[in-house]
Each structure stands twice: as C-alpha cells, then as structure tokens.
Amino acid sequence: MKTVTRNLFAVLAVGSLLAGLPTAAQASGEQASPTPVEVVTVPAPSTLTDAEMAALSPGSVSLAAPASSGATARAANPYKPLCTLDIGNVYKRTSGDKYKYGTVGAKPSTKCTGNVPRIEQSTAIYRKTAGGWAKITGDFFSFSAGVASLTQKNIEYVCKSYSKNDYKVVTLGAVWYPGLKPVSGGAYEISNGKLACG
Question: Potential cystine with 96: which of 65, 89, 102, 148 (Cβ 3.0-4.6 Å)?
C-alpha cells in the first residue's frame, strides 16, 4: 500500500471539490479546541474523473502531528502519538447475505499509538463508470473522542444485481492533537478485481 500525500487535497481542491478543508500542511502550534459539533471532514464529491482518481494513491495515509518547535509548542503537545488512516479491503460483505444480491463495503480505520482528543472519518463508495467514478452511497460520518482508534464497520452499498463492477472506497479523516489544529488527510482503496454487484 502506498501513502497518500497531501496532494489528495490539492487535486480535489483544484476542482473546487473540497474547498476550505484544512490540510496537514495548515496544522500549526495554534490552539484549537474541538467541540462536539466541530467537523473538519467534508462530504466526498459526487463524481471523480479517472485523472482525479489516478492522482491519488491507494491504501493509507499518515495523520501525524506536525513537528513542534520551541518550548511553547512542546508544552502544548507533550506527546506525539502517530495516527494512520487505512481503508482496508473493499469486498463483498458476508453480513450482506440478507440482501438478494449482497453488499459491497469496507472497514476503514484510523489507529493511533496513543489516545487523542478526537478522530473523525467521512467515507463514501464509488463505482467505475464510462466517465470516471460515481459516488453510489451517501457519506458515512463517524467520530470518537479520547480514543486511540476509530473503525467504521457500517460502510456498505446494497447491490441491485450481480453485474460485475470495480469499486473504490474513499475516506477523508482528521485527528486532533492536544493544543494543535486538526490534521487531515485522505486515502482510497480499490476492489481486488470486479465484484459481482451492480
């Protein structure tokens, strides 16, 4: 798996798809207190072209806290847990057997080496079309506070037929570190071959 660089947001922002989303490059030593209603991740765009998808790298992305410099920054962030957002596999879910044609899904997760004030993820499923990639689900949003990990286990698309298609799961995530602005990033994973799900 390759690491998604911060170019993910540059590519999507160029198309005005994710305007205003703070990136890891914007994180600094400034104070930022997350509140239960503060949301950093934004909904994924409804379509992505092949070029936009090709500009991304599959797999996982590091959501590490930026390097602190100076005594004030070190005092505000005495520890630096490393957090990684990983999409995992895109597959036909066994739990989808209750539906006639089954379901496609994934279990994206953010894992940190220590507790952080807040983790959030926004995930959507895309299907390959003639013109690129179309979002076929709404955005699944999850967050948790004071934890070291967050896994979304409810990401699924209910298939309408057995026609074979390629799928990608795109997750945008953010992590709050003590005394810092949120660090955000995103990743995607493609299905291992075409899945029997239309």
Answer: 102
Q: Is 127 helix (H, G, I), strand (E, B) or coil?
A: strand
Q: Residue 26: is it exposed, middle or buried by C-beta count within 10 angstroms (0-12/13-18/19+)?
A: middle
- Tokens 């090709």 correspond to 54
- 3-class SS letters over 68-117: CCHHHHHHHCCCCCCEEEECCCCEEEHHHHHCCCCEEEECCEEEEEEEEE
Tokens of 174: 């953010």
pTM above 0.70, yes or no: yes
Nearest to 25 by CA among 45, 44, 42, 5: 5
Q: Which helix (H) or strand (E) holds 150?
A: strand 140-151
Helices (H), the chain: 7-14, 50-54, 70-76
Structure tokens given for 179 = 């005394």
Q: Is 73 exposed, middle or buried (0-12, 13-18, 19+ CB in 10 A)?
A: middle
Q: Which of 3, 152, 126, 13 is nearest to 63 (CA)?
A: 3
Phi, psi for 161 (deg, rounded to 5): -160, 180
Instruction: Give residue-wise pLDDT tens across range 87-133.
Output: 999 999 988 899 999 999 999 999 999 999 999 999 999 999 998 99
